[in-house]
Amino acid sequence: MAKKGQKFKKHSAEFKQKVLDAYFNGEGGRNTLSKRFNVSENTIETWLMKIRHGVDVRIDHRPNHSGKRKLSETDYKERYEILKKYQAFLKARQERK
């Protein structure tokens, strides 16, 4: 399980391909290749499991942020305009009472 603040190694697509080619060419098992390429056995097993499920391991599928969508300047302007209209609506509604 990952610990808070833990940094993960990011392996290049070429490196992953090199390790997986060695595995599929019979140059060794997970244990041998993990020592040879200085990668944990679990990492190699994860790559193999993803391949078995049809996922391209050479592509990083993780989002590069905390899951929040970065708002562009136009998004902020649109939200600001909506907020102004809503405040005007609330003010008018309060004055009618």
- Percent of residues in β-strands: under 5%
* SSE succession: HHHH
Which radius of gyration do the C-alpha atoms yield? 25 Å
Helix content: 55-70%
Based on helices, strands and strand pairing, what is the structural class? mainly alpha
What profile does the largest beta sheet have?
Answer: none
The number of helical segments is 4
Shape: rod-shaped
- The tally of strands reads 0
Low-confidence region ranges: none
pLDDT average, as an integer?
Answer: 84
- Please report the distance between the alpha carbons of the first and last residues: 57 Å
Describe, in plain words, how this protein is organized in 3D.
- This protein is an all-alpha fold and 97 residues long.
- The chain is 58% helix and 0% strand.
- It is built from four helices and no strands.
- α2 packs across α3.
- The mean pLDDT is 84.
